[in-house]
Design brief:
single chain, alpha+beta, nine-stranded antiparallel β-sheet, six-stranded antiparallel β-sheet, 13 helices, 45 strands, 32% strand, globular
Length: 832
Amino acid sequence: MKKDKRLHMIGNAHIDPVWLWRWQEGFQEIKSTFRSVLDRMDEFEDFVFTSSSALFYEWVEENNPEMFAEIQKRVAEGRWELAGGWWIQSDCNIPNGESFVRQALLGQRYFLSKFNAIATYGYNVDSFGHNGMIPQILAKSGCDAYVFMRPMPNEKSLPARLFLWESDDGSKVKAFRLPYEYCTWVDDLRNHVIRCADEITSPLNSSMCFYGVGNHGGGPTKENIHSIHALNKEADMPELVMSTPRRFFDEVDAKQTRMPIYHGDLHHHASGCYSAHSEVKMLNRIAENRLLTAEKYAVAAALMDKAVATDALNLGWKQVLFNQFHDTVSGTSLPEAYQDAAYQYGEAISIADRVANHAIQRLSWAIDIPFEEGCRPLVVFNPHGFTKAMVVAAEVGRLKDTEILVDEDGGEVVFQVVQSEVLANGRVRIAFVTELPSMGWRTFRLLEQEKERAPLSETMIATDTSMENEWLRVEFDPESGAITSLVDKAIGASVINGGGALPIILDDDSDTWSHGVYSFWGRGAQHTGSCTSVRLVEHGPVVSTIEVEHAHGNSSIIQQFSLWAALKRIDVKVLVSWQEKQQMLKLQFPLNLDFRKAVSETPFGIIERAFNGEEESGQTWMDGCGQLRGTKQLYGLALANDGKYSLDFNDDTMHLTVLRSPIYAHHDPAVPEEGVTYHYQDQGPQTFNYSLVPHTGNWHASSIIEVAAELNQRPTWILESFHDGPLAQQDSLLQIDQQNIVLSALKPAYDTEGFVLRCYEAHGNETQATMRISAVDCTIEARFGPFEIKTFKVEKQSDGGWKAVETNLLELTEKEMQQIQSGKYIQPKGRR
């Protein structure tokens, strides 16, 4: 009897390699699950299986090569489907754009090298929400579809279970939201099949039903499969087909199914995960940026014929990608998991630091620095694709009163002695602001002269409660410690409406995920930190700093606000010692604006946010702009940070979420018991930085992208010596002629001796751009669509010149992708 409805039965085994257990236990469970799956294939000829996460396969390959060979055979037969194409089922909010690229690059390239195939759809069935740029990342890494489950229908309405998901650049992929769950806990699938069948709608008359024991692995059981066979014989059941997501999406394509279009991110589920466990999130931010910086310096060294070994960088990335698993970087695992994560992130950071150090020392040693009596050379490197005045703070050893700082042309550079990172004689910290060339360096000299340094004229005014430079005046309330005004002197108005940077503490009894919580406002008591001190701690020709200390319970929050003479921004160092439980700490910034518009950064783009108090995810910056009250002036305040991911815009106030202190791995509906000692998150000290950037116009007119980039990848300095060399004392290796074209990565190519340049358009404007790699005289002309990511592989030609070819995110050309699809791709013999 022909049945008019069909259910694609998707055998899978969701495996959390880390969650309520450590990775070693997850490692073993992966092997056990894969062994079970292979046994089921021997027993049932029609059984097929779907599994994601390239890491799992690498673990099996390394630990049980015989079983890995069996898997290779089943993949070749079409009975084991490679899903996802990423290194792991990642959190889809916390990682930066490049991390998503590396998930795909390392995941898909591993699949290609071991199975001569790649995954053709994304697969993150348990991630806690999905940023809106994922469709472009998928489309440019060989995938035309996406499988997810969260947010559930009660958390977000979507036009259909199957729809086209569109990102801001216009990329679209088919997206399918799983009905009910990705795993099953009973052997008889009758009830699960019936409820999934109820989701089938015309005209497709087809859907997917996922089955198999999961979370701690397991996979489809014998009874599961017997149950499917038995149900398929019943007349009132749909046709049950042992299948895979690829077969389902192929059916969708074959039937030319019309699908509604959804544009935007897929939220909200578990909004507490944007701020849970500050340490793992800070380690993630540091590791991402150290690896990206190391790659850029390594390419710079290679371009100047000073190549360094870079093979370890992929190992560093793998450690980062593993810990971007959705139960790790989200903060929802057990305490021991975060000890492991700290070690693994530490390995990644150490690898990056070694590569970066070798590269810059290869470069600085090749700079021509003639001997000069009483001189100490200082070389400063800029890892960014823009030229900009940046803060340099360097520990330089003893400093004589007769020493001045000069640049490569002998011009004096104003510097200031500031508080050192150490309390010991013989080490001095100097700070100065100087323009640094894009992807380049400058050479400065601490030069001894016969007389003492002349006192420099004061360019700033500062008291214990106010600071003022050429552009800004900031004032603090000595009683509350809050910023009362932040005045742009050109227009004579303040963008902050009192209460600025005030610590706000909210009672928060939600679980680690904050299940069901969309806003943390109004859920319990609200507290304001009590101000204990406001005082001027630094003042000079370069920078003035006011330190404000607040207390709350047994905790303290110290903020050091620095105003630079040469910059229109305020940099803030925050030192928190937190001892509270089940509370959330925010910093508030009331905006003196009407007709407000809120924006925050997402991977490779931005997203508009509502002033509704809902907790949102964000990357390195956020912005509120509007019309200054009482004027017609369009104005805004942007905030960049170096380690926080959670924010909200509530009424007229912008909030940065600093931390939460829930119980580790507390999952609702479990209720804490009286008299039991629990481990709470974010206990103890932590430090992070943020910058306040007032600006006329909307955020496009600000320098917030550059400020955030500088904050997260600071200039690198090194004390040098005297030597001959082929390199000039100042140089720039890469120039980009449009401000809205952002350098995302400059890295060694995956499989050749060339390098890869990746940029994206950041303002939402179609742009013609020129990227000139002056080090090798290679110019790339390209037209970027709004928020489009473009990748170029640059290789040396037989005639000695360099040529750039556009590729996808996998560093593969369109022709190579066609070869992969046809099974005719030949792996190059270069490095990986």
